[in-house]
């Protein structure tokens, strides 16, 4: 049994055998993959649309890719941009970059030119490994960045041979799939498969990174809404994988001789949630990762027949859609022991729907890019509480502080800003010392990360989110920064002023709404015109889904638009 601690009341709610603290090994993130290749070389590590890669094959591919990157002039500390959908090449590029001591910079492959240009220039990436369609965009903005070499990945190369041949068939379905996967890349862009195939295997004695080396730059809005590169060291990512393994009981299951877990990788790896639970946690526990380039209910159910899953990291709408489809089709999802949800609240109805069709558990957690990302979780037991964020992870401390005085904690049950301390908390923001300093506070002998979220913690240590200090919009699990959308819309002809807010949007969590003040004499303004304007510079998920034309916008005494008032007015009107 776990003994309670008056400073950590949440320990009493931990699932049986979950330790209060974990030991984080002094090693790089790649060490787990190397061990897996040695201990269970023939175990399937990856399954991409039916094509399998064993742990031994994956480690061999990673070492060849590492040699290829060295051949491109990449040295320890260099940043390598990775802009790929979920696929085997993404896993290889990620671990190959880390193996040689370089730094991965993850990007959404659907970013617009301006979004790519900003992040590539800010990170100083020297090589970009991209999906063919993204490589075209990167090549267009390359001159505004430090990127020396663009390498294109042919996604179809990761398919089973039969499916790859089928792409060449002269039928509409094959042509549509081929178009969605392929693109004609510009001259001078290299081919990933040729580079890796022609490279030698990296020597075993090649120096490896250590725990204190920078591993990842993950762009996030942080607490201010301006995208910045969160600096995650190897030890931060290793710590969160170790914490996850302890929380889910994966290590104990392996010791008991249970079959390896099968993790369904439906979350994008360029997102911190998907990256940790699919790319690092999965490899650490020696599981099989089933890769999906995008979430599609039919594709997931087909994969379930081929290789039944046991663990699904997801956002709540995914659970809803899969549960509904399973009930309608009779698909068997009972192999799933648990699903872990984040990025948006997990309702009791969604949890019940998932648990009724699987017999497993739906577990809500909380995290942010700055915590690698998981900091809180509901117990993987009957003690879980759907709708609550959960309790602090092993070796993680949390407290609630006065919003205007972050050094002073509030009493249990009172609202305040959530603060977190633990081995998974990031190092700071890339080349942003002032921003970094603002998000930490020293108190009670610890360094605390200010999350920017207003919460209530009860006497048992369970946390409930109340509001967000930062006015970021989370739609479909993706973060949208209102200021970016507003800055773009202010440049649109006919727009005098604008406020962008998020309101409840069903399965999306929130939907992006633009409240617009028109210039005098302008009429005929519609949503599709606004979306078309924004689509030139914003990802699809960031486009406004509702347009409200207003006479003016509420402002504070210093003239700042009060987005929360705008949001309340829109909700009241609807």
Automatic annotation (TrEMBL):
AMP-dependent synthetase/ligase domain sequence ranges: 33-430
Highest rank taxon of the organism: Bacteria
GO MF annotation list: ligase activity, forming carbon-sulfur bonds
The AMP-binding enzyme C-terminal domain, residue ranges: 485-560
Protein name: Long-chain acyl-CoA synthetase
Source species taxonomy: Bacteria, Bacillati, Actinomycetota, Actinomycetes, Micrococcales
């Amino acid at each position: 049994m776990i003994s309670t601690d008056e400073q950590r009341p949440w320990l009493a709610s931990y699932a049986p055998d979950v330790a209060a603290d974990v030991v984080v090994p002094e090693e790089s993130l790649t060490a787990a993959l190397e061990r897996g290749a040695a201990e269970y070389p023939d175990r399937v590590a990856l399954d991409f649309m039916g094509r399998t890669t064993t742990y031994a094959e994956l480690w061999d591919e990673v070492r060849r890719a590492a040699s290829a990157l060295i051949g491109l002039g990449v040295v320890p500390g260099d940043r390598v941009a990775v802009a790929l959908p979920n696929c085997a090449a993404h896993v290889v590029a990620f671990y190959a970059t880390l193996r040689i001591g370089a730094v991965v910079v993850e990007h959404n492959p659907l970013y617009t030119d301006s979004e790519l240009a900003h992040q590539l220039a800010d990170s100083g990436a020297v090589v970009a490994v991209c999906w063919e369609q993204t490589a075209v965009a990167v090549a267009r903005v390359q001159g505004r960045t430090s990127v020396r070499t663009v390498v294109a990945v042919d996604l179809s190369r990761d398919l089973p041979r039969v499916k790859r041949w089928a792409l060449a068939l002269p039928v509409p379905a094959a042509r549509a799939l081929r178009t969605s996967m392929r693109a004609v890349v510009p001259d001078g862009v290299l081919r990933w498969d040729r580079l890796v195939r022609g490279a030698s295997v990296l020597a075993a004695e090649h120096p490896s990174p250590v725990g204190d080396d920078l591993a990842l730059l993950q762009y996030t809005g942080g607490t201010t809404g301006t995208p910045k590169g969160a600096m995650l060291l190897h030890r931060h990512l290793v710590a969160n994988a170790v914490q996850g393994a302890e929380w889910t009981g994966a290590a104990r299951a392996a010791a008991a001789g249970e079959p390896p877990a099968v993790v369904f990788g439906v979350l994008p790896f360029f997102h911190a949630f998907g990256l940790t639970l699919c790319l690092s946690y999965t490899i650490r526990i020696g599981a099989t990762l089933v890769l999906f380039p995008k979430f599609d209910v039919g594709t997931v159910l087909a994969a379930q027949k081929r290789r039944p899953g046991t663990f699904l990291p997801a956002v709540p709408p995914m659970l809803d859609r899969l549960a509904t489809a399973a009930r309608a089709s009779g698909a068997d999802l009972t192999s799933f022991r648990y699903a872990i949800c984040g990025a948006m609240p997990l309702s009791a109805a969604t949890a019940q729907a998932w648990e009724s069709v699987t017999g497993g558990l739906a577990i809500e957690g909380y995290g942010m890019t700055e915590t690698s990302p998981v900091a809180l979780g509901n117990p993987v037991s009957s003690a879980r509480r759907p709708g609550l964020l959960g309790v602090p992870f092993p070796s993680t401390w949390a407290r609630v502080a006065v919003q205007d005085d972050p050094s002073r904690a509030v009493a249990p049950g009172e609202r305040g800003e959530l603060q977190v301390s633990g081995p998974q908390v990031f190092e700071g923001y890339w080349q942003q010392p002032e921003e970094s300093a603002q998000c930490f506070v020293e108190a009670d002998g610890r360094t605390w990360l200010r999350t920017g979220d207003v919460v209530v913690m009860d006497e048992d240590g369970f946390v409930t989110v109340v509001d967000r200090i930062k006015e970021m919009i989370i739609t479909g699990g993706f973060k949208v920064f209102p200021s970016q959308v507003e800055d773009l819309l202010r440049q649109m002809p006919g727009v005098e002023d604008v406020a962008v807010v998020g309101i409840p949007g069903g399965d999306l969590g929130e939907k992006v709404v633009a409240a617009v003040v028109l210039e005098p004499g302008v009429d005929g303004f519609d949503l599709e015109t606004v979306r078309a304007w924004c689509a030139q510079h914003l990802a699809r998920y960031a486009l406004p889904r509702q347009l409200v034309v207003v006479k003016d916008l509420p402002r504070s005494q210093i003239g700042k638009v009060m987005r929360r008032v705008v949001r309340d007015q829109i909700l009241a009107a609807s």
